[in-house]
Amino acid sequence: MRVLAAMSGGVDSAVAAARAVDAGHDVVGVHLALSAKPGTLRTGSRGCCTIEDSHDARRAADILGIPFYVWDFAERFTEEVIETFVGEYAAGRTPNPCVTCNEKIKFEALLEKAIALGFDAVATGHYARLSVADGVPELRRAVDSDKDQSYVLASLTPEQLRHSMFPVGDTRKPDIRAEAERRGLAVARKPDSHDICFIPDGDTKKFLEKRLGHRPGDLVDAETGAVLGRHTGVHGFTIGQRKGLGIDRSVLDGKPRYVLALEPVSGTVKVGSADALTVREIRAHRPVWPAGPLDGPTECVVQVRAHGGLGEAVAEVDGDQVRIQLREPLTGVAPGQVAVLYRPDAAGDVVLGSAKIAATDG
């Protein structure tokens, strides 16, 4: 097969490309330039998609003996990922930009271009596995549960999965680094990237305030209706947040308060006790089903954020939505995030589908 290896400049994508070469595929490496000003992206141990990363990717491609190109996706990344991120926060939702990037950039824009150029598949360094059951692709958790990225890939369509390869998903991260050392890849000991690549200093609130300005409103106790303070914008908060609320301790009863709800139209941030955070039902929209929609109420395991937030549930398609009834309540479930449903068998690693969280009930 002709395989386009997406090379981020990290160790995972370099080994993924190497394994595609070993498998006998005709491999071409490509690095995605995602910023018109690469210097504004994170560097070093927290880097992703920087000039430094493009050089690391090129050196890896040279060692592997494969052609290498840099493709400029900066404009589309800005429109599809950054502007969506800002817009979601402005609307009182909590987005996951990695989900959006995978969906809109790496497995839509990149894959579309790859297929147009005659490639059969795109290979990436994501920690996930693919299998086929009755001719239908199955996205599965990685062997390394600590590095598993099936959650951020669960919005991919069956057609996108058919043209995807995840060569490192069957291996644990320490073994990937050891393999890179054996292959002479300089990125073998390169630290993993973290957080959001387009926020250089990691200060999401400051980044959003620069884009959205100040939109003052009240911090309101959800139980009593009392105004506990003021804030500069709902975009500075997420559901379940406890620290940095700016509430004067003199107006509290000694009990911590958590963000319960965000109302962007009125500018109100509702806060309350930890008990009020519990969620027993999730309603989600824009579902994606790798093997077709659920057939009636379906037992599953749901994951509501990239790290943690797992619970047993019963999910059912309700018109253009998915209704998810939790067996045990979860906390910190935020509209805008993705609910990923997994098959509840012994392994529990096959993705049944995913949908974006629209609302919750306690």
From TrEMBL:
Molecular-function annotations in GO: ATP binding; tRNA binding; tRNA-uridine 2-sulfurtransferase activity
Region (Interaction with tRNA) location: 147-149
Catalytic activity: S-sulfanyl-L-cysteinyl-[protein] + uridine(34) in tRNA + AH2 + ATP = 2-thiouridine(34) in tRNA + L-cysteinyl-[protein] + A + AMP + diphosphate + H(+)
Occurrences of domain tRNA-specific 2-thiouridylase MnmA-like central (ranges): 205-272
Annotated site (Interaction with tRNA): 126, 337
Transmembrane segments: none
SUPFAM superfamilies on file: Adenine nucleotide alpha hydrolases-like
Function: Catalyzes the 2-thiolation of uridine at the wobble position (U34) of tRNA, leading to the formation of s(2)U34.
Record family assignment: Belongs to the MnmA/TRMU family.
NCBIfam families named in the record: PRK00143.1, trmU
Protein name in UniProt: tRNA-specific 2-thiouridylase MnmA
Protein's gene: trmU
